[in-house]
Amino acid sequence: MNPLVLWFHKLGSPPYFYRLAGRLLPWLWGLAAIGIAAGLYGGLVLAPPDYQQSDAFRIIYIHVPSAWMSLFIYFFMAVNGFIALVWRIKLSEILAMAAAPVGAAFTFICLATGSLWGKPMWGTWWTWDARLTSELVLLFLYLGVIGLYHAIEDRRQAARAAAFLALIGIVNLPIVHFSVKWWNTLHQGSTVKLFGPSLIDSRMLWPLLIMAVATKFAFAASLLSRARVDLLELESGKDWARQIALAEETSA
Amino acid sequence: MSEFFAMGGYGAYVWGSLAVFFVVLGIDAAAPLVKRRRVLRELRGRLKRAQKRNEESA
């Protein structure tokens, strides 16, 4: 067999994944911490104040990366949910369900910081416009997936039911993304564009991009940290899990 | 320095956002560590009980 396929099969083996994730975790957390420190230093200290919003615009360095993560993690969760439903791969079930609370956390940060930004700039903490409402629906979708997963006794059935819900909820992603184009809204349109030039000074842009990468590392770290504990719980009857439990006891 | 903390009068909003970010991500990072301790404790408990049963029946 080709070595890449072979590695993929190995990755699906719970004890191998557990060990690999354990080795990667300190690096992922480290890169996330360095990135967040550098991004926030660039955003809060080095970037010049905005000509309209003065220093209030600096909330962008928390708000926008969190908003990007809320969509990115949902997509990740839905893709893993799809793999779990079609090919019944245990690791995909675990990854989809481990992603949900991290996604909910970033969605909450996005909504809360958006509120803190809206108050001084728009004069209101909240308004029921398209972008804000669809992002709130995204939070409810995450909470629905988490709730459904915990409501069903059998772990694997629960994961598949919740993965199905996650898959249906994917219709909300384009609604969130295009809401500022499709409807009149208080929320501004995209400043940073993947295609075409961004409407932002480079001194303001680079810290934002560093924060975007750093939050990806934070997500990866939290995801692996959650996935390996969930695997340990799911496989607690297996020999490898017993060995880890006993090894921890002698070292503790 | 105090000018930096004032953030042009928007200090409460900017530092509030930062606090939300770190508190929520801190809880997110701690949750799996807490769960890991619980899972391992329960697993060890189960192993001990199984061992005891084996000794009694032997």
What is the succession of H and E elements of chain B?
Answer: HH
Count of alpha and pi helical runs of chain B? 2
Count of all domains of chain A: 1
Mean pLDDT score of chain B, rounded? 91
Identify the quaternary structure here: heterodimer
Tell me what the CATH architecture of chain A is.
Up-down Bundle
| H and E order of chain A | HHHHHHHHH
* Beta-strand residue percentage of chain A: under 5%
Bin the strand percentage of chain B.
under 5%
Task: Tell me, briefly, the overall form of chain A.
Answer: globular
* Fraction of residues in helix of chain B: over 70%
Query: Remind me, CATH topology of chain A?
Result: Four Helix Bundle (Hemerythrin (Met), subunit A)
Largest sheet features of chain B: none
Could you tell me the number of beta strands of chain B? 0
SS-based class of chain A: mainly alpha
Radius of gyration of chain B: 24 Å
Radius of gyration of chain A: 20 Å
Give a quick rundown of the structure:
The complex is a heterodimer of chains A (252) and B (58). With 252 residues, chain A is mainly alpha-helical.
Give the SSE layout:
The complex is a heterodimer of chains A (252) and B (58).
Chain A: H1 3-11, H2 14-46, H3 60-87, H4 90-122, H5 130-151, H6 155-168, H7 172-182, H8 202-234, H9 239-251
Helix pairs in contact in A: 2-8, 3-4, 3-6, 3-8, 4-5, 4-6, 4-8, 5-6, 5-7
Chain B: H1 2-6, H2 11-57
Question: How would you describe this structure in keywords?
Answer:
heterodimer; A: 252 residues; mainly alpha; Four Helix Bundle (Hemerythrin (Met), subunit A); 9 helices; globular; B: 58 residues; 0% strand; rod-shaped
